[in-house]
Amino acid sequence: MNVMEVNHLKKDYGKIHAVQDISFHVEEGELFGFLGVNGAGKSTTIQMLCTLFTPSGGSANICGYSLGKHNQEIRKRIGIVSQQNCLDDALTIKENLMIRGSLYEQDPNKLKVRLQEVSNLLKLDEILTRPFQKLSGGQKRRCEIARALMHSPKILFLDEPTTGLDPATRQSVWYCIDTLRKHTNMTVFLTTHYMEEAAQADHIALIDHGLLMEYGTPYELKEAYAKDRLVLHSHQIKQLETILSTLPYPSQKDIQHITISLTHTKDAIEILDKVKPYINGFEVLQGTMDDVFLHVTGKTLKEEGETNVCI
Ligand SMILES: Nc1ncnc2c1ncn2[C@@H]1O[C@H](COP(=O)(O)OP(=O)(O)OP(=O)(O)O)[C@@H](O)[C@H]1O
């Protein structure tokens, strides 16, 4: 079942067409990756879907409610964690969460129950009485997610939730997101610049210049745009080049290795059979979401600074 349907959504800022014509859907309970380079139109789209900006055109249905007509109903069903922290520095986590929760729930007993549920889910018990400003970056992010969960939303928007965090802290934030998804059927709408995070998504929409460029599962996108590579390590590069020139696979030469683009992973078997006497070792590297992103957004590996020679 779709929890969100977006049809021909547009947003102009004067002469700037930030979102030109975007259509996609999000399934209930899924992790949806919404990707694009800086300025592609991600934040503008999210602001529209969260009822903060009025679209210039198109329509969206969120949790069965029509954007523009039933914005109050939509707001009750969505939570947002934006790039910036927005909890009050001087207040404790408990005070912050109770204040945010009271915007939606007036019964103090129900609020306390919800606070405990959210605290259990995000493991906040030990830091509930500490002021927000005294927490580490990762703890602050977990509290921001808790804030967005206080009214039990059906969809959680996470706009670059781990940008600027060190790898260990990013991992702890992801542990929270995974726990959340395991224990609730919440839909998570994620934007991120980390392709390894995007690869966890159930479906991905890739946008550029305010247009939808690709939509699919990470597997489908990798199949279409990210070729596997066979890397041959050798001290006899010249002989290898001669053999490879008789085979129909594009390759790139470096000082001690040659990288071959494979159409199918099993092509590696035929190649290895032919080059066996001239190699010291080999690796088969799988295509990644980075490859997909670079392909779809128009950048090539060469533009990224590689100096390999095609043979
Ligand atoms: N308030 C605004 N007024 C005018 N132009 C804007 C405004 N907000 C965004 N833009 C422009 O709209 C385009 C899309 O911006 P948006 O912030 O939606 O992109 P983004 O994909 O979220 O980028 P980032 O990853 O950097 O957050 C950009 O060209 C941006 O300069």
What is the CATH class designation of the largest domain? Answer: Alpha Beta
Estimate nothing, just give the exact number of structural domains.
2
Number of helices: 11
Biggest sheet statistics: 6 strands, mixed
Rough outline: elongated
| CATH topological fold name of the largest domain | Rossmann fold
Question: N-to-C terminal Cα separation, in Å?
Answer: 50 Å
Any idea what the CATH superfamily of the largest domain is called?
P-loop containing nucleotide triphosphate hydrolases
Q: What is the total tally of β strands?
A: 15
Family: Belongs to the ABC transporter superfamily.
Domain ABC transporter: 4-234
GO molecular function: ATP binding
Protein name: ABC transporter ATP-binding protein
Topology:
Elements: E1 2-13, E2 16-27, E3 31-35, H1 42-49, E4 57-62, E5 65-66, H2 71-76, E6 78-81, H3 93-102, H4 108-122, H5 137-149, E7 155-159, H6 167-183, E8 187-191, H7 195-198, E9 203-208, E10 211-216, H8 218-225, E11 229-233, H9 237-244, E12 251-253, E13 257-261, H10 267-275, E14 281-285, H11 289-296, E15 309-310
Parallel strand pairs: 3-8, 3-9, 6-7, 7-8
Antiparallel strand pairs: 1-2, 1-4, 4-5, 9-10, 11-13, 11-14, 12-13, 12-15
Helix pairs in contact: 3-4, 5-6, 8-11
The protein binds adenosine-5'-triphosphate (ATP).
Task: Summarize the structure in words.
The protein is an alpha/beta fold. The protein has two domains: 216 residues, 3-Layer(aba) Sandwich (Rossmann fold); 59 residues, ACT domain (Alpha-Beta Plaits, 2-Layer Sandwich). Helices cover 34% and strands 27% of the residues. The chain contains eleven helices and 15 strands. The strands form three sheets. A six-stranded mixed beta sheet has the order 6-7-8-3-9-10, sandwiched between helices. Strands 14-11-13-12-15 form a five-stranded antiparallel beta sheet, with helices on one face. The longest helix is centred in the middle third of the chain and has 17 residues. It is elongated. Bound molecules: adenosine-5'-triphosphate. Adenosine-5'-triphosphate (ATP) binds next to β2 and α1. Adenosine-5'-triphosphate binds next to β2 and α1.
